[in-house]
Design a protein that fits this description.
With 353 residues, the chain is of the alpha+beta class. It has helices at 2-64, 90-96, 100-103, 126-132, 179-193, 203-220, 234-241, 243-260, 284-300, 328-341; strands at residues 75-80, 85-88, 139-145, 151-162, 168-177, 224-231, 266-269, 274-280, 304-305, 308-309, 314-320, 349-351. Helix 7 packs across helix 8 (243-260) and helix 8 (243-260) crosses helix 9 (284-300). It starts with a helix and ends with a strand.
């Protein structure tokens, strides 16, 4: 009986040990599972922290590096050695009005840079000039072309990238829009040289241009003529119809001069109703043709007051360069004397001696 009891007791002890082992094993599994869950949580937290750090870094770079910021107002171009556009930033696309597909792979010349600038200078060799003299083009200002045809001014900073053979491989350019500044400069320049009412050259600028043309004509023994023009009976016109009609008569006469002359000719306002037209490379006979054309243009121009046409006429005098003329003032003086000598001038043309 005792032996049976002892055997039962031993069995109970074994079962108790086994049960304790099972409990311990399950506890380890639960602990291991909890540990694995914690590892997953920590890993997710690490990934989230890394992403936050990257976002903070980008935000920092955008704040202090205007070239990487979406709000950057910089035009950024990357070109190969031949001027073929390799990449362009978003602001440049928006500024010029193109899509990336319309620019990448195209030559910058003829697309973003006009083939000729406003002064007639050929720009087809601009890339070669930059490569030959990179120091001269570290910073430069030039006209650029938008998709809609607008001309804008960009101040560029250019950097040449060389390959392992010290050959030019890329040109990287960063530009800023300076169009408003250029427009202001042009406005100030015009204020200094242009008559504000008629848009013709003022007296000072006309004389300066005349001095240059006179020197050139004397050096190369070329023809040079000048025409003086005044509006007939202007005081009466002004008195009977008012200053507004008088101003319109002046503008009518000036427009007739523009319609009758070449781009290479000069038109200036010397006094209130006295205008001068300088005609380079033009002999006396040619100047007479221009003067007659101006008179005809003035007379056929429509100037109406209360639906009644007002006839405007002009008197002109012509002087062509002679060997005795030393300065442009000599030419103007002879022409002025010819106009003054015509006491009863009304739609007449006088020729200086």
């Amino acid at each position: 009986m005792d032996s049976v009891l002892f055997r039962c007791f031993d069995f109970a002890i074994v079962m108790l040990v086994f049960a304790l082992y099972i409990l311990k094993t399950n506890k380890h599994k639960e602990e291991e599972k909890e540990l694995q869950n914690k590892i997953v949580e920590l890993n997710n937290s690490l990934l989230a922290t890394r992403k936050d750090l990257e976002d903070i870094t980008k935000e920092h770079n955008h704040k202090f590096d205007p070239y990487s910021s979406k709000s950057s107002k910089s035009v950024i171009l990357d070109m190969d050695k031949d001027g073929i556009i390799k990449s362009v930033n978003d602001y440049a696309l928006e500024f010029f009005g193109y899509s990336s597909e319309e620019l990448v792979g195209k030559n910058v010349i003829g697309n973003l840079v006009p083939l000729k600038d406003s002064h007639g200078q050929n720009t087809s060799d601009l890339i070669d000039r930059i490569k030959r003299n990179p120091r001269l083009y570290l910073d430069n200002e030039c006209e650029n072309l938008c998709k809609d045809g607008r001309i804008v001014w960009i101040s560029w900073t250019n950097r040449i990238i060389y390959d392992e053979n010290n050959e030019v491989s890329e040109i990287r350019s960063v530009g800023f829009d300076i169009t408003p500044r250029k427009e202001l400069e042009e406005e100030l320049r015009n204020m200094a040289i242009v008559d504000p009412v008629t848009g013709t050259l003022n007296r000072r600028q006309f004389v300066e241009d005349g001095i240059k043309e006179m020197k050139r004509a004397k050096r190369y023994k070329r023809d040079l003529s000048v025409i003086l023009m005044t509006i007939d009976k202007f005081a009466t016109l002004n008195h009977e119809h008012g200053s507004f009609v008088g101003d319109q008569a002046i503008k009518t006469a000036v427009q007739a001069c523009r319609n009758s002359t070449r781009d290479s000719d000069y038109i200036g306002r010397l006094a209130d109703i006295e205008f001068a037209i300088l005609l380079p490379e033009t002999p006396l006979d040619g100047a007479k043709i221009v003067a007659q054309r101006i008179q005809n243009e003035v007379m056929k121009s429509g100037l109406y007051v209360n639906n009644v046409q007002i006839t405007v006429t002009t008197s002109l005098s012509i002087a062509s360069r002679q060997n005795s003329d030393e300065t442009i003032e000599d030419l103007l003086f002879r022409s002025f004397n010819a106009l003054k000598a015509n006491k009863d001038r009304q739609n007449t043309i006088s020729v200086a001696d």
